[in-house]
């Protein structure tokens, strides 16, 4: 970790010399000398870090070096900031003031160099060179959880939930066991079991964890059980939430999972919400503490299941599964007759080293470990006709299997420990590397013998952490910023990593393409996933990571190591991990360095008493992330102003979903070193012009609430380092918002041609992703299209929301040009369309299409079903005015999500056999004359969820389940294979509001009063006449 800090500071100082050299001419020579000395220290850090587990002196030296590197960077940044703000007189006065600090830094470096001789840590004579494994080039399309254990146990627990026991009806089923034993994995298997899905009507999953809030947990459960009432639920008080939850459970059969319950007081507080007098709703609970389950049983009938440890055979089976999956993710062939290298897409790489004499390639060696038992026995039979190389490889295979079984046997049957071990082994391609892991593994386990009950998991995690390449360690520790059980959006994480300086383009050497920071960051996360340090979910439409999570024990490691490395401070610090990993004095070393560099602040009712922290300076804080799970936006004006005054070295400031009143404080302009600023979801109406001082910003996120129109000063053009700009959905500027100078911009969201100049787009030569709002006349739309078609465009992914009526021949020609962009991935068309372009005029890469208020006369499915990559199709507010639509056989080959809403004249819907073969979610909403669910739905086995909203009672009765022993509705046979069927109704007043906001009714006075800047000119007359 210290090695990374040093490399990062060296990189930062080099950038300072390039970007700010003219401001510090008298310091330039000194900076160059310091850089030379830091590079010398860098060559020794690897040696010191290899000794730190057993050498307290090495640990102290590393910590001092790390803090000194930070101090050097801080002092120079302060010098630059002060001098640029000062007059000539003050400028030279400040240099005199800075000189003593520079002398102190020189003295500290000399002391560290002297200490090297005492500790016999000699610098290498040549630059540091290590063999680094190539980063992954592709990403898995599916990340599943492996389960090894008794399927009979799962079936028994499912039976307890879906039908009463002969002697007792259990309202609660509790799974208990120590951390890392697989409670949550088992609960997920039960939650998605086909019998569970067919028995219950509604489902909810809530992680409770250590730091939970009653209101938050109840809201999350109700939002899952009644998604149509989210707005009403958000305004309910606690007692109203309890009453609503009881009423829902009595009205419908609900399965509610309370995952990771720590204390008995959880049931004291939440229990009344599950005291149902009638109905068949159930609760599935997971907890580490058996007493919690027994406590629940005193209040409600509870079946207690104690999760057992895996036996030796199951443990080895799990390791093999994870290694096999890791190889598939890597793209390495498991065919023992093929080479170890694998090709993925257009990139090729080798999985091993060419220098080792006894290399057993990852693919070949693992294959031997992944065979069935009969094959395992055959491994010992070596044919006499084989060459010596074959015999050596065979011996290596057997040795790797022996080492693997010994290590997995030391994991104590804990699935998490085995999974993390697999992530470590998958990165090792030779028998020698496996032997080193085995040796280190035993050493770590000996250290952890005195730690608490699941110490083995922590020691395996610690070994995996220490094995991480230096550039991945800060990326992993950064995840500790986020609250427990957080689903961390990956794009946000990548941008945070980049702003912190964790992502380097220097290691990427390719001749055929330019590597972007976000691509490199994604590869970093992919390696953490491969090493089983991080869990991820994949966006099915793109195949890329959507969000990531930490297991609670992995998060504990994050917090422990973050504390040891003085990496992060959490406010309030309510939880201090007790496990000691490594040397007992590690925490003592951390405490000797009290300077806070990174803050993670959890907002609660005590926030005013906890922030700013007492008796502690925040002068050196580099990042501050604020998190709130409170339903109301808290006013952070005071905290914001404090940071703007006291923490001027901030690089990262994340303030999402807070209230700043009318205007963001002008003090934001003091934070001139900011690289990341997110105000997403926060409420304020005016951005101060001082934001133009933030010229180093890489990410600016201004996606404030939909109903707030933000006034933006025309200063964004000054932020010439911007890479990611997220404008508000509704915004205005006194003049055209100039973006022409943002030549490094890669992502631009909510670009509105009524506020910004479309002619700026061709000047953004690195722009890769564009989301734009278009609502001008035909000529202007045509001009914009011509700009986007220019040959020098780097755009790879574009998304448009177009508010316009396409009726004349000229207008339809423009629409045809718009739909034909090669880079078009998402299109939202709002307004009347006389006819759709032919399918061959649509971009082949189009994945998401939304039509609102189109009033088409011809069946739109005839065209849309031929789009080869369409993933999501949403049709709202009278898209089609006919009475019958047809989805032909073989149509919509990749469609996963289909929503049909507000087709008031639709009576009959025909779905051909083998149409929509990949459909997963179907929504039928407010099609008041539709008679029945299409017959063809019964043949689509992939449908997992059916939502029926605001439909007549006669329609809903056809698909509703009734009590056991009675016949269901007439259409039950069409939908009985669907695991989740949700039937909802929304009140008329709420629907009217949503219709005006979301369904394309932009002529509504309500909408026009909120969004005057985005109403198309052709609709202005109708506005005045209303």
From TrEMBL:
SUPFAM superfamilies: L domain-like, P-loop containing nucleoside triphosphate hydrolases. One of its GO terms (biological process) is defense response to virus. Keywords: ATP-binding, Leucine-rich repeat, Nucleotide-binding, Plant defense, Repeat. Residues 7-76 form the Disease resistance N-terminal domain. Residues 482-557 form the Disease resistance protein winged helix domain. Residues 337-393 are annotated as: Disordered. Signal peptide: none annotated. Residues 620-931 form the Disease resistance R13L4/SHOC-2-like LRR domain. Gene3D superfamilies: 1.20.5.4130, Helical domain of apoptotic protease-activating factors, P-loop containing nucleotide triphosphate hydrolases, Ribonuclease Inhibitor, Winged helix-like DNA-binding domain superfamily/Winged helix DNA-binding domain. GO terms for molecular function: ATP binding. Residues 151-323 form the NB-ARC domain. Belongs to the disease resistance NB-LRR family. This is Uncharacterized protein. It comes from Castilleja foliolosa.
